[in-house]
From TrEMBL:
Keywords linked to the UniProt accession: Oxidoreductase
Any GO molecular function: oxidoreductase activity
UniProt xrefs under InterPro entries: FAD-linked_oxidoreductase-like
Domain of life: Bacteria
Gene3D superfamilies in the cross-refs: 3.20.20.220
Species assigned in the record: Thioclava pacifica DSM 10166
Protein name as annotated: Methylenetetrahydrofolate reductase
Taxonomic lineage of the native organism: Bacteria, Pseudomonadati, Pseudomonadota, Alphaproteobacteria, Rhodobacterales
Length: 294
């Protein structure tokens, strides 16, 4: 019986500098417990890289603050998550904001509703947090986007509610000097992303998009996270790969997706945001490899 060759897939050919342009300003996401395992972020990413800090329910604010301070001290731009549904009230929100600013020099934040079904207090969405004024003076605010919808918000599978929420945030950006962008859930296929980007423009939503992409990871890992996070039609990309025994044990990489987008990039996609589901080092190495092939 012939042996199956499980060698790593060969890199895609260069795309005439477009991949390098797409990866310019790329960001990455960490959690405090995963960041603690990284000996040096300087060895992985360029100085000034934006690093989102995911705030999972149950994570003490002290761990979030310590991670933000460490990233700032190492020369990075920390952007902590503020999930409305795990914050009791405006007073707690303001306390967190002031501590982030005072203890870690935080100037940027990702505001989102959060995955908790029942809010712990009176806050449940990003606009409520924005309207408290707690983030006045911040250099940049990002809000959540869902290229393939969000059934927690639109149970029918549509996007009426999520699009209406983005319009409210766009209205806020229009009437203030807030520098805002949309950071999205990850997807695996360029077509649905392009279609969603076009619908944003058609709805008058001009905030630039920081497109979520899953970094290199085992296929089983990506399938688990994709199902848990409600990834939509593009999940079929992973399912198709799972049926190919020659690829089943290879790490899945975002090369095809980003090459496709680099060659035909929607004008409102400003940057790529990496979810390092297969590890921070693997994602950092993949980014460096792609830049090296340009």
């Amino acid at each position: 019986m012939a042996l199956v060759n499980f060698r790593r897939e060969a890199p895609r050919p260069p795309v005439n500098g477009k991949m390098e342009a797409l990866l310019e300003g790329a960001s990455v996401e960490v959690m405090p417990r995963t960041a603690a395992k990284v000996e040096s972020f300087r060895a992985l990413f360029a100085p000034g890289t934006r690093v989102y800090i995911a705030h999972i329910e149950g994570t003490p604010i002290e761990e979030m603050l310590a991670t933000a301070k460490r990233l700032r001290d190492e020369g990075f731009e920390p952007m902590p998550h503020f999930p409305a549904r795990i914050i009791r009230d405006a007073a707690q929100l303001n306390d967190w904001v002031q501590r982030y600013k005072g203890e870690a020099g935080v100037q940027q934040a990702l505001l989102l509703g959060g995955g908790v079904k029942e809010p712990v207090g009176e806050l449940h969405c990003a606009m409520q947090m924005i309207e408290t004024g707690a983030f006045d003076g911040f250099a940049r605010l990002h809000v959540a986007g869902h290229p393939e919808g969000n059934r927690d918000i639109d149970p029918d599978g549509g996007e009426a509610e999520v699009m209406a929420a983005l319009k409210l945030k766009q209205d806020f950006a229009n009437r203030t000097d807030a520098d805002m962008a949309i950071a999205t859930q990850f997807a695996f296929e360029a077509g649905p992303i392009r279609d969603w980007a076009a619908r944003l423009e058609a709805n008058g939503i001009e905030m630039p998009v920081h497109l979520g992409v899953a970094g290199p990871a085992k296929l089983q890992t990506l399938l688990k996270f994709a199902i848990a996070c409600g990834v939509g039609p593009s999940l079929k990309v992973l399912q198709k790969r799972a049926r190919d025994v020659t690829k089943l044990l290879l790490p899945f990489e975002p090369t095809d997706l980003l090459t496709d987008l680099a060659l035909d990039r929607p004008s409102n996609i400003e940057a790529i945001h990496f979810f390092p589901l297969g590890g921070i080092t693997a994602t950092a190495n993949w980014i460096a490899e792609q830049r090296g092939h340009e």
